[in-house]
Amino acid sequence: xxxxxxxxxxxxxxxxxxxxxxxxxxxxxxxxxxxxxxxxxxxxxxxxxxxxxxxxxxxxxxxxxxxxxxxxxxxxxxxxxxxxxxxxxxxxxxxxxxxxxxxxxxxxxxxxxxxxxxxxxxxxxxxxxxxxxxxxxxxxxxxxxxxxxxxxxxxxxxxxxxxxxxxxxxxxxxxxxxxxxxxxxxxxxxxxxxxxxxxxxxxxxxxxxxxxxxxxxxxxxxxxxxxxxxxxxxxxxxxxxxxxxxxxxxxxxxxxxxxxxxxxxxxxxxxxxxxxxxxxxxxxxxxxxxxxxxxxxxxxxxxxxxxxxxxxxxxxxxxxxxxxxxxxxxxxxxxxxxxxxxxxxxxxxxxxxxxxxxxxxxxxxxxxxxxxxxxxxxxxxxxxxxxxxxxxxxxxxxxxxxxxxxxxxxxxxxxxxxxxxxxxxxxxxxxxxxxxxxxx
Length: 440
Known about the structure:
Elements: H1 23-27, E1 33-34, E2 37-38, E3 58-59, E4 64-69, E5 75-81, H2 91-101, E6 119-122, E7 124-125, E8 128-129, E9 134-139, H3 161-168, H4 184-202, E10 205-213, E11 216-217, H5 230-233, H6 243-257, E12 265-272, H7 286-295, E13 300-305, H8 316-319, E14 323-325, E15 331-333, E16 341-342, E17 345-346, E18 351-357, E19 367-370, E20 376-379, H9 390-416
Antiparallel strand pairs: 1-2, 3-4, 4-5, 5-9, 6-9, 7-8, 10-11, 10-12, 12-18, 13-18, 14-15, 16-17, 19-20
Helix pairs in contact: 2-4, 2-9, 4-9, 7-9
């Protein structure tokens, strides 16, 4: 006769005890068995060890962002926890960034029509952040769930359809659910808040642009990172600051779009005026946090920082960034192959990185695949998709970089700025010595 379990918590009883052995073994002891089935001990010792931490939708330690929602559900959004109080904030601050990532912007993006209008439903009073969680919601208004009927039966090649089934045994078929880039709305909304904090507190600027589409590569020396402006990257539909190469990139996207195919590319992102001292050795190095954050974006396949892979072709004497004293008495580097970070800690130079995006997985060309019940078949995916995700990925990359920096800024302030700094070696984090006066 099969034994019955008196409680599902027995499945959590495998945590090691103080002697290093699993307590699950003690539950299997004959003394614990009776004719009525498996019984739990009368006393639950060390119950705090029976904790499973849910993960996957939250980023940050001090400035914590959790995204929610699915591509064709009721809506998407985020909850921002840990935002400092008394910061002027409105929905229009977020809407500017959301408009940059919304679909239907041009012929080289998905034709799905969404206004992506956001609503803040908590955490704001009289136009100021209160320090409590900020909830941001964006409704889905242009859903076409029937476009995905074939995907309920067969897996799209190189998409997350199969792996979500492998992991969960169930998935949201319409639009890819959580694997859809529509999830990034919450990231971009939260990134708008992070950008505002960074700009107001230390004058940091984050600007990203498209530096490659398929085989069209913008040479690095055609963009001056010291003077680059957001307007330059936003002046055309592909978000490339060089007009000549922008036209080549648009042509490359058009060439595959009309064939029902797709291409990938690269987004370059820079950060100016980032404070020195952000990032922590050893496992929480700033470039490691940036890589994790950027690689969590949909369709990412690579991350380069500073000199990146090109640095492997150089010698140490060629690659090292030599120090000098500038006219203001600050320690600077003559070159910036380190990408603004050394030893995992920002050094005050321009932070720069590149993020590679693969071609969009969902294409309208016939492909070989298998069904959910294990039969080989062919699939022509329907739905509305970007022929190249890279132009719309620009504000997404900026948002993730901002989330990393504001989280690291708050960590640095908490650990190293609690007491007076060593002015011979350290600089204030803030470019504004006096906080802005806010009338309540």
